[in-house]
Write a structure and sequence with these properties.
The structure is a single chain. With about 240 residues, the chain is an alpha+beta fold. The protein has a domain of about 160 residues: q2cbj1_9rhob like domain (Jelly Rolls), CATH 2.60.120.620. Helix content is about 20%, strand content about 30%. The protein is built from 6 helices and 15 strands. It has a 6-stranded antiparallel sheet with strand order 2-10-6-12-4-3. A 4-stranded mixed sheet has the order 1-9-7-11, with helices on one face. β13 and β14 form a beta hairpin. It is globular, with a radius of gyration of 18 Å.
């Protein structure tokens, strides 16, 4: 029995492969790029925390590999990018984020992703039952489109997960005071015709977040508690 078959046996939600046609509206599997050096660096130089997750937006060593320039020049059309990582032991949905621009994930080991569509958010509320769980095999690189709701991966083994994360430069970094003021002015205008309700979800630079109310760390950071339904735990 392979990993995907086992995951479907021990969970009460269907888990699909990113190679399944169902992934097409969320993103695509990348080919033609050599991530060998990045994966080796991640295995040799990054740790998995004992609890929770760790996210580092930009790692100079990862950004020096030739494949980074290839991604910048092709996948992002010459726009500046950052290469970092997310490692951890997460096993619950917790919430979702999205960015304006694609995110590339490289699976250093097997993991799962819980994905949705940003256009299914209604009045800053998202029904978690609309989400789909995908299995990403070790060594696979995927592009997630900017309309794809996602958060950190979920582990499929006791050790946890490691993953490379590529995004437009500056994403997931703190808002400046000026940027916070611009966001807050829109939020404060709630009820007025010109109000953009999406502003309530803007948590960091190029990072819009909608959290499950049970996910206290996200709520304490200021994430909007708009995810409804069960904050499911996935087993392995």
């Amino acid at each position: 029995m392979n990993v995907l078959e086992h995951l479907n046996q021990v969970n009460d939600v269907e888990i699909k492969s990113v190679y399944d046609e169902a992934f097409a509206s969320f993103g695509r599997v990348l080919s033609g790029y050599d991530f060998t050096d990045m994966i080796s660096y991640m295995r040799d130089n990054t740790d998995i925390p004992e609890n929770g997750n760790v996210y580092v937006a930009s790692v100079e060593e990862l950004e020096k590999f030739p494949v980074t320039k290839q991604m910048r020049d092709t996948l992002y059309g010459g726009m500046e990018i950052q290469v970092g990582y997310c490692n951890g032991r997460n096993n619950t949905y917790n919430g979702f984020e999205y960015h304006k621009g694609s995110e590339i994930n490289v699976a250093v080991c097997d993991f799962m992703l819980v994905l949705g569509h940003s256009y299914e958010i209604t009045n800053n509320t998202y029904d978690i039952s609309q989400a789909t769980v995908f299995f990403v095999p070790e060594g696979t690189a995927i592009e997630m489109y900017q309309t794809t709701l996602h958060l950190s991966p979920l582990r499929v083994c006791d050790e946890g997960f490691r993953g490379v994360v590529v995004l437009p430069k500056g994403t997931n970094t703190p808002l400046t005071d000026e940027e916070k003021a611009a966001r807050d002015s829109i939020v404060a205008a709630a009820g007025e015709k010109a109000t953009d309700s999406e502003a309530r979800l803007l948590l960091q630079r190029n990072k819009w977040v909608i959290a499950h109310p049970e996910r206290e760390p996200l709520i304490k950071q200021g994430a909007h508690p708009g995810v409804t339904g069960e904050n499911k735990e996935l087993f392995y």
